[in-house]
Hints:
The complex is a heterodimer. Helices cover 36% and strands 25% of the residues of chain A. By secondary structure, chain A is an alpha+beta fold. Chain A is globular and about 95 Å long. Chain B has two domains: 3-46; 73-176, Orthogonal Bundle (Helix Hairpins). Chain B has helices at 3-15, 25-45, 48-58, 76-95, 100-137, 141-176.
Amino acid sequence: MGRIVGIDLGTTNSLVAYVDAQTGQPKCIPGPYGSTLCPSVVSLDADGSVIVGEAARRRLLTQPERTIYSVKRLMGRGPADVQSELQLFPFRIDPQSKNVIRVMLGDKMFTPPEISAFILRELRNWAEAYLGETVDRAVITVPAYFNDAQRQATKDAGRIAGLEVLRLVNEPTAAALAYGLHEKQRGHVAVYDLGGGTFDISILKLISTGEGDIYQVLSTNGDTHLGGDDIDNLLQAFVHERIRETEDLDFSPHGELAQDLRKSLIAAKHELSEKESVTLRFALPSGKTFVHNFSRTGFEALIQNVVNRTMTPVKQALADAHLAPSAIEEVVLVGGTTRTPLIRCTVQEFFGRKPHTELNPDEVVALGAAAQANILERGVSNMLLLDVTPLSLGIETYGGAVSRIIPRNSTIPASAQEQYTTGVDNQTGIDIHVLQGERELARDCRSLARFTLKVPPAPAGLPRIEVAFLIDANGILQVAAKDMRTGERHSIEVQPSYGINDTEIERMLEESIEYAEQDFAERQLIEARTESEAILSATTKALANPQSAEIPPAERSNIEAAIAALKQSVAGTDYKLIRKRIDELNHATEHLAELLMNSAVSTALAGRKLAEV
Amino acid sequence: MDGLEQEFLQLSWKLHPDNFVNTDEGEREISLQRSSRLNDAYRVLKDPVARVEYLLELEGMRKEGEHKQQAPPELLEEVFELNESLDELREAKSAGANLDALTIKLRAAEKNFGEKLHEVDAEMKTAAQQWDAALDANTSETDREAILQRLNELLNRRSYIRNLVAGVEKELQAASC
């Protein structure tokens, strides 16, 4: 059997981590670009090959119709759920999709789990290349507030990627685990996790016992559609409006223009976490340049509403844990979006204490997943995670009402048994509708599954069937039935309302192997060569520009040396060396890029690479 | 840490599915069944109200769907007044009149019933302790029967008042929209 890794399958970035056998500490694995972050972007080339991560992210601008990002937003959801997403995201959804969404990439269609599987496979490749061992099992993290369908979709993605998913762990719980190992904390801990697309708050109790440490989740709450993406959307809408005051432009999300602007806005947003103000310069097709000065206060006023929206779940989670804010001894911030100063301030003020930010908020979830993977790999451990189900489980009763059978924040695994009988003679089936949510009416809750319980013909009221509903340690529903008179067990085929069935998953697994057959190293080499071509041609063009006369001769010869070194590496087959030479050339041309940018029309964000100018 | 919690955590160490990932399917299934039963049991036992409900069910005092919803006699007058105010609120709202005075009155009533809820909870706690003591002291069946009756009454009273409070909350919320 191969290694187990921990994977953070994120909206914006995904990471893979493992526990180092020597130090016993979890560690994130870097990819071919040297970064541990793998952008959660997938692109399908015209030749049918799949590109994932940084290389795919670059294709968002050049081949938006073949590239998809933020697919996590679509996991476990039906076409009707995502209509509002489509206004701002360039998802191209097959109009024929029924329960399961199908997304078009070029001329091919994929379900969200299949696209996520491409990301998982990429991370698996990173891990195998780094560890030099086969990786066939994983712990994957999910937002704590994910419902059954979203969890099931994540597990399906693992299967399609050829990974046995040993456990789905809630992201804030994983973060607490990583921090616990790091800080040896005790007592009540709040984990505030604002990522690219999801928000979670979890309240945990860390207990030391004779056997070891227990991480007991007391309550969790959140919003699976609230995150950094929403801040980007606000910025985008704001700037679109400003630009449209003078120019008549099409900012449809599929267009290159909108994607390009979004990229500049995200860079500006990141800078505003460090600086008090930032100037955005954006070249418009008309040849004019849009210039806007964002002040930190102006930015904060714009995003105040997003920050406020996180506080309702925070208060609810505390109420459910029967704790006041002052009873929380430690606050942990997770997710890239928590770098925003307004968020740090708001959280600090609410809890009356300074939150922990020592661990990299992008990496902490993956580190926790690796720690949990390590626990499962060894079988016995001095650490135990007790997590909860975020949403109440119910069944539809007469008149469309919901009878709650497992309340939210129940420790999982959790179960409930319901007894059923027939209402008329020789009735052969009883319809059961399982739901998740806090509302009183079935139509306001999330439908998980509908099924018909088969009953042997008998006089009304005579059959006694007990149905056991069980939420497993992954937060996924299982259903079993037992005939109370005969003791006979019925197997129940539960067709999930928004899921894919087993046969389809098998087919997808087979198909995905075809995609995977391309050798990873070979693919990396092609990528690196393509990229070096782009940067070499950009550099040659830049050096031919009259403006470049301003750079000192020593710098010019540095650049020429870097060009020669890169050309030499491209002749070889070592993709890592090519990457290194690309970085060196990028570094050598930083000043040149800045020079050309100031004189030309592009955005004026420093640190840009020449190929992006 | 109380005894119940300690017991729960200790059993969790033994039964949790994390400990059985590398075992065969049969053992994994048993671990899943047992740890879910453990969690179900703890969920009921740590909640004083759910615990009393469960006790009464065990003792055959309470069957599912058989919850009494009559007003406890000593509350009749206050409940009558409350319902009147709620009617007034609804009328005033549909007439578009000013709701401030009625809202204040209802908030006060809500607070009043909230306090009663706390009283019932305290009484229930005492009665539950009496039950535990009666079991330990092996008292007569009639005595125990009386405690169970008392618990049953308190539970009905509690669910009645709780519905009342929830109802007022809902109306106040609707009025403020």
